[in-house]
Known about the structure:
The chain has one helix at residues 22-28, and strands at residues 3-9, 12-18, 33-36, 38-39, 43-47, 59-62, 66-70, 75-79, 91-103, 118-123. The protein is 6% helix and 46% strand.
Amino acid sequence: MTLRIRISWPAGHTTATLEETPTSKALAGVLPIVSTARTWGEEVYFDTPVSASVEEGARQVVEPGTVAFWTEGDALALPYGPTPISRGDECRLASPCNLLGALDGDPRILATVRDGDPIRVELVSD
Length: 126
């Protein structure tokens, strides 16, 4: 089973496909949510009402466009390029995060998200 979500902010939107994991199922159960976007280098993250434990396969260095869950901050993390702690061009998250899935399109669309923007996440119905 896969889930599709839509992520919207004032300047744009994107969709993502999530794998079935304990964290993605918990997230799907609380959607839709509205939160406040934060930026950290070339990463957008925002609080969710979900709390999760670190899952097997959690990683700190991920591909651009990965949909990750930062367990230490109960937040979705959406990297699209280097963060302040990256080495070179890698996407290095603050700490190992649960991997939920990936954005469907070009992750650079996230560059239009501004710190403090309202951000909405909802399920996409097929």
